[in-house]
Each structure stands twice: as structure tokens, then as C-alpha cells.
Amino acid sequence: MEPGTEKRVSARITGRVQGVGFRNFTRRRARRLDVTGWVRNESDGSVRLEAEGPTDALESLIEAVHQGPRTARVETVDVDWSDAADAFEGFRVRR
Q1: Cα–Cα distance between 76 and 40 in angstroms, integer?
Q2: Mind listing the pLDDT tens digit for each residue in 62-82?
């Protein structure tokens, strides 16, 4: 992989995204894309996603969370990009 191709994405997903399998959906998709990081429910009803990996894989993950599992209703996905810090091992659901 070329230097500088690894990125980090931080996203806040709102809508009907808790209690609908959203975190497990995100974890499965991230692992399939070989992305590291975590996803968790927030107290305000949103879901927070922190992930690192190749830019194209992260773009695919963000595209996927715009849809979510079929029982979800995503309203917004706020995304911030930065350089990867190699901060994660694997991808997990945080509680």
C-alpha cells in the first residue's frame, strides 16, 4: 500500500439506528472491508463510528451506513476525515 492511502473516518449516524441491528451490520461490513475501528450507541440515540483503513474501503463503509440494515431508517451521516493513526486492532462493537 502506498504511504498516505490509509485514512481515518469519524461518523455520527442519526435516525432510527438503535435497536435495529445497526452496530452488528456495521461491524460485519467493516470486517468484510478489512477496516479497523469501532461502533457504539450514543446516549442521544445516534451511533458513533470510528474507523481506519484504505480510503476506498472507508468510502464503501460510509456508503453502507447511509443505508444500514433494512430495519433502520438513517436520517443523517456526519463524516469527518483525517489521517490514520494506526489506533485500532480489528473492528468491534463498543458498549
Answers
A1: 16
A2: 999 999 999 999 999 999 999
SS3 label, residue 81: strand
- Residue span of the structural domain in which 80 resides: 6-93
The pTM of this model reads 0.93
Q: State the total domains in the chain.
A: 1
Residue 3 DSSP symbol: T
CATH number at residue 47: 3.30.70.100
Which residue out of 28, 41, 48, 92 is catalytically annotated? 41
For the question of residue 41 being annotated catalytic, the response is: yes
Residues 6+ positions from 16 with CB-CB distance below 8 Å: 71, 72, 73
Catalytic residue among 8, 23, 27, 29: 23
In a domain, 1, yes or no: no
Contact of 6 with 87, CB cutoff 8 Å: no
